[in-house]
């Protein structure tokens, strides 16, 4: 059994890694933006007074903050998309286990593949990040947030750091995702590949623990002073995000029965969501993050303006919203990617449904019902993450428990999430449904 | 007797000019078990797909359960299939992440008629008590029996089977064939089964031999050894 065979099998479907590759490219771009923003601010020929003012109003930290958030997001999202891609290959992995590859060898082959995907992705992402970084610095100057002397500079460590982040996160994601398929006994492996069910014995309790911890912290922070609450906010968000991420399959399984209310198509959709809760949760995590991030930023700004009656400065607004916009877009792209990966693996299942009597329209309706379940779950989970992070800050700083949610934002986030999920599920399904079922099954 | 499946001068030409079926005519009455045999590439699957409305013939007419499939739109053909046809394939074609019950009831939940109850058909195929098991955990023979239960739940007029025993050992295959036999005898369904195996064809009432897209023999099914002889005959000429 040589590793070439393994590599070939993993590569049999090159599109399987499109999701991770796209998110890695975006992660590399984000890291590049953060690094170059830092370099541009640090390297600008500023007077002592100018620099002191920048340190005072916190804009020197903007680049560093952006960098840290980017790395955090990348770890989470690249890991998740890589996990979905590897999960997709479970059948192939089972095959090389049956022909004699050891678990360790299987894991190495997967790791190699994951690392290899990161290289072209990073090389594509870094130039994108340079463009984005230049635009961002330009925006900072344009909005008068930093002096005009600040010009765009490329950080010397862009390539190695970007590579470290993408390769590191994708290796980590791939290795974790490969634990199950590589450990299975070969005889079990093929049957297991068809079912790919896990009992989530570690995952669910850990998720519950993190969500409980985040919620408790949120309650505790609400009783403390504004500054402590502000500092602790990040920790609340981190544990809530990771926690809901781990609980993804459970959340989908709980939400799925709601689809049964829609009718016969909804009942089939509910079964499908429950059966595929594990792979769908790979999309749920980034979507929840996108919703949570956006809701947190928008609602805190809107509530502050509403309570104090003081409008946020244009520059401040630009800084927060541009950052949140980029993060949410990144997470949204990752979510759509994962959905497409999950859907593409179901061509045969859609054909079977049509074979036993579902028309094209009927099959698509089932998929749309599934999309609605995912959308609703992402919205509720995202709202929960935002609320846990937000409420202590509102209460301690503004003395209110009532968040102010602008109606256009509410409509935008609901419609936007639904559109993303439909683009990730219904669109590829519609394309696949154009092929006659008997050609797919043959 | 009125036939539930009727093919009149059916032809199928594929895009690259291959004429897979030429002028094939076949009348199948309710309760008859027909085995279709022939060399690889002789057009067996094409015949089955055209008869079932899964594929459109390029010439001739197909009637299924009294409905003319010719010129019918895809969605109308799909509904006709759902209401009057059952399918069993060599590769099972089940949704492996769903349970046995979810798979068996799929045609009904997609709007098809509920001819029989799940418990009834599962009992008939010997899988009572398996309803909650995920299909991915079952053996090949068990999966094929789930597929048969799914085919029978709507009480179809015709059951179409393409090499249903192709992936099974003789004993397991025999069980599957006995179930198809019972579908014809007990439930009065017409069964159209494509097979390579003379022993499988011996379960049928009628044998249709295809050679290069043309019916070379159509008559009562003889014993397995005679079927093998006939099959060698048509294959030798075709080769
Ligand atoms: N989708 C297709 N496109 C072109 N030719 C096809 C297609 N399907 C089948 N054929 C050709 O039609 C002939 C009959 O095929 P098929 O019905 O599958 O035969 P069998 O099932 O008896 O092996 C063969 O020559 C085959 O190559
Ligand atoms: Mg065939």
UniProtKB/TrEMBL annotation, chain A:
- Report the residue ranges that make up the ABC3 transporter permease C-terminal domain in this protein: 65-184, 329-426
Q: Which InterPro entries match?
A: ABC3_permease_C, Membrane_comp_ABC_pdt
Q: Keywords in UniProt for this one?
A: Cell membrane, Membrane, Transmembrane, Transmembrane helix
The record, for Pfam families, names: FtsX
Originating organism:
Paractinoplanes ferrugineus
Instruction: Tell me where it resides.
Output: Cell membrane
Q: Does the keyword Transmembrane apply?
A: yes
Q: By what name is this protein known?
A: ABC3 transporter permease C-terminal domain-containing protein
Question: What is the membrane topology here?
Answer: Multi-pass membrane protein
**What is the predominant subcellular site recorded for this chain?**
membrane
| Annotated TM spans | 65-87, 114-137, 157-179, 206-224, 236-262, 283-304, 324-343, 364-389, 409-433
> Can you list the GO cellular component terms from the UniProt entry?
plasma membrane
Automatic annotation (TrEMBL), chain B:
UniProt cross-references to Gene3D superfamilies, sorted A to Z: P-loop containing nucleotide triphosphate hydrolases
Has UniProt tagged this entry with the keyword Ligase? no
CDD domains, per the entry: ABC_MJ0796_LolCDE_FtsE
The keyword Transport is assigned to this record? yes
Q: Which residues does the UniProt record annotate as the domain ABC transporter? A: 5-237
PROSITE patterns hit by this protein = ABC_TRANSPORTER_1, ABC_TRANSPORTER_2
| Protein origin, superkingdom | Bacteria
Q: Name one GO molecular function term.
A: ATP binding
What keywords sit in the KW lines?
ATP-binding, Nucleotide-binding, Transport
Q: Which GO terms describe its cellular component?
A: membrane protein complex; plasma membrane
Q: What is this protein called?
A: ABC transporter ATP-binding protein
Origin organism is: Paractinoplanes ferrugineus
